[in-house]
Amino acid sequence: MSDTTAHEEPELIQLLTPEGELTGHPDYPLEITADEVRDLYRDLVLVRRFDGEAVSLQRQGELGLWASLLGQEAAQIGSGRALRGHDMAFPSYREHGVAWCRGIEPEELLGMFRGVTNGGWDPHEHGFHLYTIVIGSQALHATGYAMGVQRDGALGEDGTAVITYFGDGATSQGDTNEAFNFASVNNAPVVFFCQNNQWAISEPLERQARVPIYKRASGFGFPGVRVDGNDVLAVLAVTRAALDNAREGNGPTLVEAFTYRMGAHTTNDDPTRYRNAAELEEWKAKDPILRVRRYLEHNGLADDAFFAGVDAEADALGEKVRTQCRSLPDPEPLDIFHEVYAEPNVHIDRQRAEFAEYLASFEAEGVR
Amino acid sequence: MSNLTIGKAVNAGLRAAMEHDPKVLVMGEDVGRLGGVFRVTDGLHKDFGADRVIDTPLAESGIVGTAIGMAMRGYRPVVEIQFDGFFFPAANQTFTQLAKMRRRSAGKLSVPVVMRIPYGGGIGAVEHHSESPESYFLHTAGLRVVSVANAVDAYWMIQQAIRSDDPVIFLEPKRRYYEKAEVDTEAPFAEAVPMGAARVARPGTDVTLLAYGPMVKTALQAAEADTDHSIEVIDLRSLSPVDYPTVVESVKRTGRLVVTHEATLTGGPGAEIAARITEECFYHLESPVIRVAAFDTPYPQSRLEEHYLPDLDRVLDGVDRAFAY
What we know:
The complex is a heterodimer.
Chain A: H1 34-59, H2 73-80, E1 88-90, H3 96-101, H4 106-114, H5 123-126, H6 137-151, E2 162-167, H7 174-186, E3 190-196, E4 199-200, E5 203-204, H8 216-220, E6 224-228, H9 232-247, E7 253-258, H10 277-284, H11 288-298, H12 304-326, H13 346-364
Parallel strand pairs in A: 1-2, 2-3, 3-7, 6-7
Antiparallel strand pairs in A: 4-5
Helix pairs in contact in A: 1-2, 1-11, 1-12, 2-9, 6-7
Chain B: E1 2-5, H1 6-20, E2 24-28, H2 44-48, E3 53-55, H3 60-72, E4 76-80, H4 91-98, H5 101-104, E5 114-119, H6 134-138, E6 144-147, H7 151-163, E7 168-173, E8 180-183, E9 199-202, E10 207-211, H8 215-225, E11 231-235, E12 238-240, H9 244-254, E13 257-264, H10 269-280, E14 290-294, H11 305-308, H12 312-322
Parallel strand pairs in B: 2-3, 2-4, 4-5, 5-7, 6-7, 10-11, 10-13, 13-14
Antiparallel strand pairs in B: 1-8, 6-12, 9-11
Helix pairs in contact in B: 1-7, 3-4, 8-12
């Protein structure tokens, strides 16, 4: 077999090196204040802390499962902060950093993984759809939503852009590819944001694709770009450009955020079975938070008091997350029947009545 | 009054719904300039434009998935799946997303998508064009499932399905598309019989014969042909939920129930109805509930379909079996 494309080194859009040097990029100029960089640093630290707390809560039996974002903070905060209030995001299930940017309370995410809700937030209120677990399904919802935006005439400088998140594994799904095609032929205002974290549970990227993921876009007829997913500034600049392009009516973009899943796929997974420690070490040197800290330190944009303040805030968040998680109330048994249908349904009503009577029979007998 | 075929009645109902609500969209393969392979969307593209009557790429999952997204944006998409057998590529979006979105969001999201599916056999088609997939939908919480048997219901029920805030699977009996009836298209919407209600299509006293969609005509022919028994024919109309009070009332009077459908026997709608009627009418039944359905085989090549599909004689045979006890 021969394949030249697989061995080409694709261009990686980067603004901030792992050493914390701001290099910039001619195609993606980013005007950003020191305050804004400090805010991004704070976001990165806080979502990493939240995520770490959630992993611990799962280990303590407080959560059924957790899908850690460790290592992907910059991809999520950079893209999440590129969104405007009226934009709409369609996440997969690991987008805790984007959720953070959209004002979702940590407890609402925890509720889903604790099993007390299926995702409790209001997608319209936050411009952030519920987590979607069947891989790639949400890419079509985002595309349809974007086709609705077109029909509303909500395009232009202040228009609405739509973004959908998925991973490298999802690029193998039919739904993702159908979404690319529907978005392309309709010129829909949607950004396809792929966090290529190199692993789909145990399957490495080469089991998903022979060509770099961002290059898929050209076959569908829209631009694709690979950005350093561990560089929050580059992700912010690239995503903002793609969103603006969409909102102005110029159609979709595929953004491949090249990053790394530093943790397990979920708390049920054991990555030591399929990948070696050296790889992780290599990526630790490209840590998304460290480089921002270095940049702030080297340029005198933040002092020890600032970093200590963020750490204290992270400690407080950790405390809040633990308390909130443990106090989430269990749903009532009859909640099973809630909101299956909008309209009254005789089958559901009957089963609810029978089950209520059955439950009440225990009370009557004093069993509980 | 208009004399309309079932196909034309769906078309007129779609037109009325689109005139009533600018958020109603039609989307699917060939629904635009062609007007659909059965011409059910004929003329809509011309009158409502390409933004509201959307020729989609040829990908059923994409059609249903984007319809869900449009519904979240506030639209009411009416999706056409070209043939029953082509539904299956859209199964993931239908079962894991469309049906569950309301429950997943604790009622914060509605996805009022209508999925129109021409279904059933008897047209001499090649494979995948003659199937009756209703059982898959019935087994899925969150979906409503209806089927029409005449032009009057076709006209009103498509409009009711579109106004419903629940996703509705709207099954159109393709071999009956050209059956005609007088439809009062000027009557007020509010006066139409709700799509959830079963209808006694022909009163009788000896046995209840339950059918829906394409089999209603066959059931009525059976009732006409059987000079030994007075057969009450019920057109179920809504398959999920089932209007059990109407069925139970009938069975308690007649003491016998025969259910017929083109879907395969095992795990078919008749199985669930038989179980429920046995529970609710146990002391009124003079015989077990009899099912007359398609065989538990893949739909055969069309030269065999007259043997595969329940026809007049097999329905009458089923009625006779109900009187053998």
